[in-house]
Amino acid sequence: RSGWAGKTRGLNLGGVRVARTAWGDMTEANKAKLIAGNQNTIKNEKPAAAIVPAESAAPKQEPIKNAEQPASADPALQNRDRGRAASVNQMQSIARNPDYMRLGPSRTPDSGAPMVFAVGGDTNKIAPSSFGANDIAVMSDGQRVPFRYAVVDASSVEPSNFADGATNPAFASVAPGTIKALNNGRTAGVRAAHEGSKAANYTAELLADQAHGVSPEAIRNTPNPMLVRVYAEQSNTGDMAAKSQGQGLGMSASERATQDAELMTADVLDKFAPGDIASAGNRDFVRAFVGKLAENELADMMDATGNLSQDGRRRIEAALLTAAYGKSDLVQELFESTDTDIKAIGNALKVMSGQWAAMRQAAKEGSIDPATDMTANLIEAVNIVRRSRAEGSSIAELAGQGDLMGGNYLSELSEGFLRIFYKGKNYDRARGGDKVIAALQEIVTSAMNTKAEAGLFGDSFKATPKQIVESARSKIDEENK
What is the pTM for the complete model shown? Predict the structure, then answer.
């Protein structure tokens, strides 16, 4: 929103337009109405300023019950793949030249000193004299997180990964007093800068700065000094990592898809209509998904006219693909690679992703027979095709090899999906993309017609997964005759 001042172009969701200059002045209730497509007049109201008593400005580090258990799952604190090249490059850049002006006092989590917390609320590892001023950080969703500046030994703060991308086992520790980083890249970078004797300028500017409130004496007495923002563990939410990210390192398509797939809940998928995501029939679906995003992500989803942008389309497609077929390198190949060896099959998976995701959700909820969720078999068949293309091996050969470790051969269901992709005894004739789509559509339709249990007297017919796949294959075979 910071770049919208003075512009008159608006955000249009389902016919509702709001001038970008007015967005920041809206109440949260009115923003919700906008996202929901409410057609009523939206009043511009200034949100009431929060009054924070001085004594409550610092986070109260009260012991947490059952401190031996982590307060939140690791994905809540690290939702990125810090081992990928882009992440390593970012951390190495900080390690070579840590810029205190970008690692100093700040009220936003995506810039400034790393935000950290102590497991169990035990901050005894930080000397009282090393604490400084109190302040508040504002997360991307508006959550206000009280914190207190402190200078600590950089090696005492645990990031999820080190600056070379290697995983840090200590990040998983649940021992009380473990200091964990919310901003892992900055933490790893400053740690590495001290280790490589590249932090002299950083330390000099840290000493000269009075804004953080930590005494120069305390800084001089701290080995490998690093300015941090200590907040209470109780402030962590299930999406803390996502809310701490703004203009920092962008996520890859597969990383973002993994995160966005969690937003493809039943109430969103129920609004999906087969066909183009940007069509009028999917306006409610797009609105429902966009309504779950943080405010600072809305601009990327829409173009200048307020319609779904190309980036927005690709993001939703990737999220649907992950929700449908699970987290795998398949999303990376289809959305990050310039070329793919499974173009026809990949396109069919994209086309069917919304319906397949809805079927999986129904199976998960138990409204249909859970056994009809054959995603694992579908992906196994897709991976055999990918491997065949990559290695130059025949599909027939790979399908008959079996697992050398366990001796397991391709299951009947996985073979059934291969037969949907290919004709011929030796899988030597690829089917057209339209045939693959038709077969997957038939499988989804049949699965959605099943019930979790048989009828009261056991007289309800329930097709088995094998029957569903064989029926879909038979139908596209008959169309070829």
Answer: 0.52
